[in-house]
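Students often ask what a holo structure prediction actually looks like on paper. The answer is less mysterious than it sounds. You provide the chain, you provide the ligand, and the output is a string of discrete structure tokens encoding the 3D arrangement of the protein together with adenosine-5'-triphosphate.
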Amino acid sequence: MMNNAVVVDDLVVHRGGHEVLRHLSFSIAAGQVTGLLGPSGCGKSTLMRAIVGVQRLTSGSVQVLGAEAGSAPLRDRFGYVTQDVSVYDDLTVGENLAFFASVLGAGRDDVARAVAAVDLGPQVDQVVGNLSGGQRSRASLAVALLGEPELLVLDEPTVGLDPVLRRDLWGLFHRIADGGAAVLVSSHVMDEAERCDRLLLMRDGVFIADDTPDAIRARTGVDDIEQAFLALVDEAGAA
Ligand SMILES: Nc1ncnc2c1ncn2[C@@H]1O[C@H](COP(=O)(O)OP(=O)(O)OP(=O)(O)O)[C@@H](O)[C@H]1O
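The corresponding structure tokens follow.
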């Protein structure tokens, strides 16, 4: 039986007077990297906010790890990284992690594991304000890895990173999923689609495809996911 970390049923969200998420129903399996891809403004961040419980729902439901999204028992069972850096600029990498570990009740070993996972060992004593953009994003990611979360929700974690770092981070996402966690990663860069076990292609608050990259390519008859996305948009328009 598929072990679902997230179950969304008929979810509708309005923001600024618009229907941003339109009757979404789907689930996210543990042990997989699920990619949420679509153009800017299609609703990816809003959907992630709904899953981590910080978005008011208009209707429908979001269950996370068997509980209602946003409910207290979930607090230390998932990690969430937004596009805004969430670490303190005036503390070092190590101090930031020690602070968040104490909030979560995580141990020193866990801090060392998180630092190593994002490859920030050499920067551990550096003040975050002096790090490069990519290093700062990795520091935020390290915080999300504390406590070995069962669900990791990452909103465009690879924006602004160089190709080598991007490849390494995708490797890390897969290792986390192989360890049994559910990993949900958003991106508006279609070439990242190849790296996902499953793709949710989103447009205007609905999914226009939900399948493996191979199956999406086979269905559209094109090799490139960006071209496949455009073919699916045309197909949806023609329907
Ligand atoms: N605070 C807000 N108030 C009103 N409308 C909002 C707010 N935040 C987002 N929206 C609208 O909701 C829609 C979806 O936005 P969302 O941030 O979820 O998209 P996205 O796919 O994550 O985009 P991006 O890739 O640019 O981050 C957009 O039309 C946006 O204008």
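Residues 87-148 form one domain.
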